[in-house]
From TrEMBL:
Keyword Iron set for record: no
Composition bias, Low complexity: 412-431
Native organism: Eubacterium ramulus
Keywords: Membrane, Transmembrane, Transmembrane helix
Taxonomic lineage of the native organism: Bacteria, Bacillati, Bacillota, Clostridia, Eubacteriales
Transmembrane segments: 12-30
Record-linked InterPro entries: c-di-AMP_regulator, YbbR
Disordered: annotated span: 409-431
Pfam families: YbbR
Name of the protein this chain belongs to: YbbR-like protein
């Protein structure tokens, strides 16, 4: 029996082996036709491990070029590849593997399924980072109120608890922090309030700084707001007296434009401004600015006081403006010569006469030199080059006496040695 079985197996053994091999090949061909290899791309986030490795060195890092996401391809049987999704893979960057230059960290990618049946192809699998020193600073918290409290109410004090917060982060970010604020809305508030307010970091231009790379020991603070019955009113400065001739009062300058007052609602309702007047506001005979120290409490009406945070003493400058001189070139045709002896003739040595008129800035805008007229009294003139005094018509004020150069000659017997169309004196002398 055994011999017959052995004979059957060994009979045509080569052909039987060939048939088996051929069957395997056919099976592989069929499998590859039905389930060929396929390559598919995936993009997943990179998980950071052991980030304390840099922190323990007093360093912090920032991820560059969005390298915390990695793209790679996976090759395998189509039936397997089509089952895979992003969630089947993990990408890990271990900070302990950072390079010596502290610029890159290798990223490893692993599959949670079919790891032995697929090939993961990743090119530049590195996390690119920028490393800088870690710093810790304390910052005072400034409470900022927004909105308007209820009628005749104002914020007397607003304080934070704690008064300071500790911030840890990159030096480059901490150096941008100008103020730390806690903002509280007091719109319509008529009594004391206690609340919690988020801490906001601002740079020098008032822009908010992201806290993504920072660690704060407190992200919010308790804020206590004290509300007092009161109102803010503008200051009104009333002067007395008149400045010296050629000067005028321009304005009052003060670092404080309004003051906070407290009192009963009835007393506050009757005051819309705080007027500062009296001897301290005198500008009589002034030729320059007048500076006065003012005690605000002396000008408060009955039943009204200054708020506790309002300064009592202020300095006021009463600005006095003096006239200035501006030069105008007046054509000589506008100058009339009077009382020139009939035997003399006069010529101007220039086409215009320069006059320096006194006035305030706005006065000069309406002055047209073509419209300015004047006269010369030539009654005492002799021959030669003279400095003739010009007197302007109208109400002009001048900074100095006006002179212009003229040439006076004696007329010939024919009376044609000179001409002066503006000379009234020559005509009157010949009558």
């Amino acid at each position: 029996m055994l011999r017959k079985l052995t004979k059957r197996i060994t009979n045509n053994f080569g052909l039987k082996v060939l048939a088996v091999v051929f069957a395997i090949v056919i099976w592989l061909v069929v499998v590859n036709i039905e389930d060929p290899e396929k390559t598919k791309g995936f993009t997943i986030p990179v998980t950071i491990e052991n980030s304390d490795y840099l922190t323990d060195m007093g360093k912090t890092y920032d991820i560059l070029n969005n390298s915390d996401k990695i793209s790679f391809t996976v090759t395998g049987k189509r039936s397997i590849i089509e089952e895979l999704s992003d969630s089947d893979f993990t990408a890990v960057a271990n900070m302990e593997n950072v390079n010596d230059e502290l610029t890159t960290v290798p990223v490893s990618v692993a599959a949670s399924r079919y790891s032995g049946q697929i090939e993961i192809n990743k090119r530049d699998a590195t996390l690119k980072i920028s490393v800088e020193n870690l710093k810790t600073e304390k910052y005072a918290v400034k409470v900022v109120t927004k909105g308007t409290p209820a009628a005749y109410c104002y914020v007397e004090t607003a304080t934070a608890d704690p008064k300071k917060v500790t911030i840890t982060g990159p030096e480059s970010v901490l150096s941008q922090i100008a103020t730390v604020e806690a903002i509280v809305d007091v719109s319509g508030v008529g009594e004391d309030m206690a609340t919690n307010s988020k801490v906001v970091l601002l740079d020098e231009t008032g822009n908010e700084i992201s806290q993504d790379r920072l660690t704060l020991n407190r992200t919010s603070v308790a804020v206590d707001v004290k509300i007092t019955m009161g109102k803010s009113v503008p200051l009104k400065f009333t002067t007395n007296g008149t400045p010296a001739d050629g000067y005028r009062y321009e304005k009052a300058e003060c670092s404080v434009s309004s003051v906070k007052l407290v009192g009963s609602s009835e007393a506050l309702a009757g005051i819309s401004e705080l007027e500062i007047s009296g001897s301290q506001m005198s500008i009589a005979g002034a030729t320059s600015d007048v500076t006065a120290g003012v005690d605000l409490t002396k000008f408060l009406p009955d039943g009204v006081e200054l708020a506790s945070d309002q300064q009592k003493q202020i300095n006021v400058t009463l600005v006095i403006e003096g006239k200035t001189a501006k030069a105008f070139a007046v054509p000589v045709k506008n100058i009339t010569v009077k009382n020139l002896p009939s035997n003399l003739s006069m010529q101007f040595n220039a086409d215009t006469v320069t006059v320096n008129i006194l006035g305030f800035a706005e006065d000069f805008a309406d002055i047209n030199p073509e419209s300015i007229t004047g006269t010369i009294d030539a009654s005492g003139f002799n021959t030669g080059v003279l400095a003739a005094e010009v007197k302007l018509d109208g109400n002009y004020s001048v900074s100095e006496t006006i002179y212009t150069a003229v040439t006076v000659t004696e007329k010939s017997s024919s009376g044609n040695s000179g001409s002066d169309s503006n000379s009234e004196g020559a005509n009157s002398s010949s009558q």
